[in-house]
Structures are given as structure tokens and as C-alpha cells.
Amino acid sequence: MRKSEDTRNDRRLEHFRTVAREAGLKLTHQRLEIFRELAGTEEHPDAETIFRAVQQRMPTVSLDTVYRTLWTLHDLGLVTTLGPRREGVRFDANLDRHHHFSCVRCGLVRDFESAELDGLRVPDSVRRLGSVADAHVEVRGLCATCQRDRRTSRDPKPPATRGERR
Amino acid sequence: MRKSEDTRNDRRLEHFRTVAREAGLKLTHQRLEIFRELAGTEEHPDAETIFRAVQQRMPTVSLDTVYRTLWTLHDLGLVTTLGPRREGVRFDANLDRHHHFSCVRCGLVRDFESAELDGLRVPDSVRRLGSVADAHVEVRGLCATCQRDRRTSRDPKPPATRGERR
DNA sequence: TTAGGTGCAAATTCTTTGCACCCTG
DNA sequence: CAGGGTGCAAAGAATTTGCACCTAA
Known about the structure:
The structure is a homodimer.
Chain A: H1 2-23, H2 29-39, H3 47-57, H4 63-75, E1 80-82, E2 90-92, E3 99-103, E4 109-112, H5 115-118, H6 124-127, E5 130-143, H7 144-152
Parallel strand pairs in A: 3-5
Antiparallel strand pairs in A: 1-2, 3-4
Chain A binds a DNA duplex through helix 4.
């Protein structure tokens, strides 16, 4: 498993180098580290989280560089964002076709793959709205951990999707 | 068409009244107007947009009331949010099962229905991650308008998903 | 060498909160 | 009439920007 993850990350990193070179981007330490961090996690972190992780190895990076770098990667098509728009951003370096499970309570997001779901057909009515670049399934529910917590603290009102401030 | 939209909105509004009453919420003008505004649009607006719309009829509302009301409605299950988490919020009063098309360029989001997609099966591997409350399809692409613009202004670099500041 | 990239700090933008008054139930 | 709800103004977060220095190519 570890082996295949390393391979996958190497492949992603290589792709990054190629695309960056073609675009005339400089391969700075910061960019490499930020991309490496994102490519190596399944967590779909936000900028702040990536910042903290990269800061370990590179104590002088700044948060704004992380932001700038992530958006640069995004504009190059090297990472995607979760959520429909620019705001509320969490990043994803997984460019393989995949789907998402997200917990409505704690915000956890996990990728999953499914050959069956990959094959889903987009209705013609949608094609009339615009061109289709991608179609994936979003599953919402309670993750295993939150199910357990919920059972413990049985509050009648929903704890609300909000809750978790940083 | 107009007729059926009115009916739909009346039904939503009635549902709101019922749920609010049961929860012991007061039915203030502000809440009614804010909900009505959301129930009557297909646009999945953010708080600011709703605020501006409601302000027309009710010049004294404040933006913070809009925020508070939307989250209250959300906690009661009367509206859902687009995007996986609390951040980056756009709201939706459509509780019927539906899917989304969103434009990667301008951020437009449209609902669509599909009996076929409603029936999609969530893999067992996902059920192991947690309980499944909902599964829907997110389609990303370029909307008709942006396709046209793109063709006109043929810039080689992507205009980026960002772009539109308020 | 040199243009693009970075860190820093300040500026913006977005959202939430404290408090006194108001209005629904 | 009472307690939740609202508006206002101010606080807090999150994200972006201007600028001088730095470094990959």
C-alpha cells in the first residue's frame, strides 16, 4: 500500500514538474513542498491546514504563499477544489475520476472510486445547459465517528453542520 | 409554468410555517421574506444576494439577520447548502431530490431532475464510511453563456474559476 | 542577470457577536 | 406581557495585495 501511494505521489509530482515547466513556472521549494503535501493526503485540506503542515519542514513559508500557490496550481489544472465555487475552498490533487463522501456533521470528506458510478449518463436536458466536463457523485451522511458521538450525546436538535470553527 | 411555480412556493412556505411552529420559532416578517426569496429562486444565492433582494421590499433588514435566519432555516432542515461545508455558502430551498450542474467559469448553478440518476446505487464500500443520507450528481462544465464568451475572447490561459469578485 | 516568486504587514472581504429595543405569540 | 428576534456597530476570520528583497533559470 505504502509502495503504491509513493508511486502515485511520484507520478503526480512528475506531472506537476512537466506542466509547470511548460507554463514557464519556476519550481521553487515552496511550490514543490505545497504540492507534495497536497498530493500526499486524502484529507482535502484547506489553505490553513496545508500551511501548518508545510511549515514543519519549511518554517519560513507564509500563508499567503500557500494561497497563491494553490490558486496557481488550480489555474493550471493541477488541483481541483471541493465545493462549487471559489469560496469555501478545500483542495484536492487527485485528478483521477472519483466521487465524494462527506459528513454533514464534522465536514470530513473521503474519496471513493466506483466503476459503476463512473459510467453514469448525464441527461440530454443537462447538455443543453452547457458542455459537460465532469460528472461525479456526492454522497452526504454521517461518518462512522459522528454516528458514534451522536449516539452518546443524544441531543434532540441537530448539532448543526456548522459547529467546527478552526 | 408560472402557476406551478406559485404552487410549489406556496407548498414550501406552508412547510416552513409548520416546521417553524413546531420548533417554537416566531414567524417574523424578516424570516418570511427571506424564506420566500430563497424558495422563489433557482439561483442558489449567497447571503449577500438574498440580502439585497429582500432589502427591496424591506429596507430596514440587516445583513446579519439574513445570515442568522439562513442558518436557522438550515438547522431546521428547511434549506440545504451547496458545497460540502459551512464555508463558501450558497443556499437552496429545494428539498426535492435533485442534481446540480455548475459552471466552472462563472459559478452558475442549476438544478436538474433525473429519475435515472435518482436511482443510482451507492457502493457498499461507502456505506462502511458512514450512514448515507443523500446521494446526488454534480456535473461541472461551461454554461452556454460562458461557452459563447470563451469563443469570443479566445485567451489561451484559462480565465480561472476565480475571477468574479463581488 | 533578471523576471518571477516570496515574506511581511497592512488592507479587504466575509461572517459573527454583544447589546438595547422591538414585536410575535 | 415575556422572551425570542432584530438592527446596529464593532469584533473576528479568512483571504488578498503592495512592496522590497530573493532566487531559479
